[in-house]
Design brief:
Blueprint lengths: L1 E5 L1 H8 L7 E5 L3 H6 L3 E2 L6 E3 L6 E4 L1 E5 L7 E5 L5 H6 L9 E2 L5 E2 L4 H7 L1 E2 L11 H13 L5 E2 L1 H13 L7 H12 L4 H10 L2 H5 L1 H4 L16 H14 L4 H9 L18 H4 L1 H10 L4 H18 L6 H11 L5 H16 L11 H13 L4 H5 L4 H24 L1
Parallel strand pairs: 2-5, 10-11
Antiparallel strand pairs: 1-2, 1-8, 3-4, 4-5, 6-7, 8-9
């Protein structure tokens, strides 16, 4: 029995990056031997075991063969005669197909170290094209390591393009796709993830609503970058630079989908794109079964982001409606994330990345003013039921009028 560290642990150590997850592969062992040593089995599809003391995962060396469509369409074979090289060749990229023993002796049959030094993401074997999930994984790695200068090898992009055109991406489950998408959006350069998917034709298959934004112009006075798709990438990049959470990044990606529905004769204006885009945002949300908080914020940002930009001009009654829509009294964090998404949208414009966004503090102040209205005095005046609701609304409107006057004084 021989045990090796494999994959990301080896890759990141060689890159000088902190190693978080350690995967181990066991060569020359049987399930019975692992159980006899106290390992606990957890793998349903193939033999994976938890170490009796550390709880870390150990997988038996295995080979795999394509047997059906999609990510799950594989049969696995694990036995003591499967070599380390045979286990490594089934992996996606050369930089993930290296192994090392406890003395850090490297086993690198597919030249992963060479590709690390060349900053290239390259597939290990033609079997790469058998798993559609790898299109998303490679795009995610491109986003993760873009800052280090990594690019996708042309021949790997070709295979990704073939996979995109084959219809295999449609066989991916919503859960698997969302896992890759959400992880990619939380990388330092999430816009690279979208760019790579678009380059290989996968964006058109997975998110045609986002792909459709490229080539659609916006007014140069507001958007010096003009292209709506480029703007979307810039907004996503700003969200990453400002360390925004996943909810905000997802909303940033989808906020302008309505512009893809604007008739060409109306370009570069996009009248009512906010409301028009809601059905598209909803469709993307449902396609990937995004978490509820991501879905809700994306829809609210899509509908109200221009309200955010015009916050200083809004009438107190419109401002109150906005606050009500976000339920700022019970869910203040969601409104804070909306403000963040609006600010990223404003900064995601060519040459305006450092522009101040006074709307943010103004909206926060408005929310504080509305929340400051006390309910108890109204109860003491005898208001109850629907009348109480109307009385609270009147007092909040009064507070917002005073706030607006004070802010403009």
């Amino acid at each position: 029995m021989q045990i090796y560290k494999v994959g990301g642990a080896v890759r990141d150590r060689l890159l000088g990056i902190a190693v978080t997850d350690i995967d181990r592969v066991v060569v020359g062992a049987t399930t019975e031997e692992m159980l006899a040593k106290g390992f606990r089995p957890v793998g349903a599809d193939f033999p994976v075991f938890l170490h009796p003391k550390t709880g870390e995962e150990y997988a038996l060396a295995r080979t795999e063969r394509k047997s059906g469509r999609g990510y799950g369409g594989f049969t696995f074979h694990a036995s003591p005669d499967v070599t380390l090289e045979e286990d490594l060749i089934r992996r996606d990229l050369t930089i993930n197909a290296m192994a090392e023993d406890d003395q850090q002796n490297l086993t690198d049959p597919y030249h992963g170290q060479r590709d690390l030094e060349a900053r290239v993401l390259r597939h290990v074997s033609p079997a790469f094209a058998e798993d559609p999930l790898r299109v998303l994984r490679v795009a995610r790695f491109a986003a993760r390591y873009a800052e280090l200068g990594f690019t996708v090898a042309p021949e790997t992009l070709d295979l990704m393009r073939q996979l995109s055109e084959s219809g295999e991406l449609q066989a991916l489950t919503a859960e698997r796709s969302w896992k890759e998408i959400s992880r990619a959006l939380m990388e330092n350069q999430p816009q690279v993830f979208i760019q790579v998917l678009r380059t290989c034709g996968a964006l058109k298959e997975l998110m045609p609503e986002v792909d459709a934004l490229f080539g659609i112009p916006q007014p140069a006075t507001h958007h010096p970058e003009i292209d709506t798709g480029i703007h979307t990438l810039s907004v996503l990049q700003q969200a990453a630079q400002h360390k925004q959470p996943l909810t905000v990044r997802w909303a940033c990606l989808l906020h302008d989908l309505g512009k893809g529905l604007t008739p060409e004769e109306q370009w570069p204006r996009h009248i009512a794109h906010e409301s028009k885009g809601l059905k598209l945002i909803k469709a993307v949300n449902e396609r990937f079964k995004a978490p509820r908080d991501c879905q809700e914020l994306a829809l609210l940002v899509g509908e109200y982001h221009t309200h955010g930009h015009r916050a200083l001009e809004l009438k107190p009654s419109t401002l109150l409606e906005l606050l009500q829509s976000f339920d700022v009294y019970r869910r203040p964090q969601r409104f804070e994330e909306f403000i963040a998404a609006c600010e990223m949208d404003a900064r995601g414009r060519k040459g305006l990345e450092q522009t101040s966004y006074p709307q943010a503090d103004y909206l926060r102040g408005a929310a504080t003013a509305a929340r400051s209205v006390a309910v108890q005095p109204l109860l003491e005046q005898g208001f109850k039921g629907p009348e109480l609701g109307e009385a609270i609304k009147r007092e909040r409107l009064k507070a917002l009028k005073a706030y607006k006057e004070g802010a403009s004084a």
